[in-house]
Amino acid sequence: MPEISEGSRRICIKSLIFIENYERIIVFNFLKIHKNFRFKFRDIKGIKLKFKRIFRFF
After folding, report:
1. Which of 37, 38, 40, 53 has its CA 20 to 30 A from that of 29?
2. Closest by alpha carbon to 49, among 15, 10, 19, 5?
3. What angle do CA 50, 7, 45 make, to 5 degrees?
4. Residue 17 lies in a domain
């Protein structure tokens, strides 16, 4: 776990909050289009894994 400065940590938190909101929008639109919950949850897991790779240092 490398050391992160306060500034970049704040940017990370802001990015994660943005991603969370963005994810919610994706899910909401996805629900409107598709009623298939199983596919939706698999999709969310895929999205979360992608962001976990980006923010691995966080």
Report:
1. 53
2. 19
3. 15
4. yes
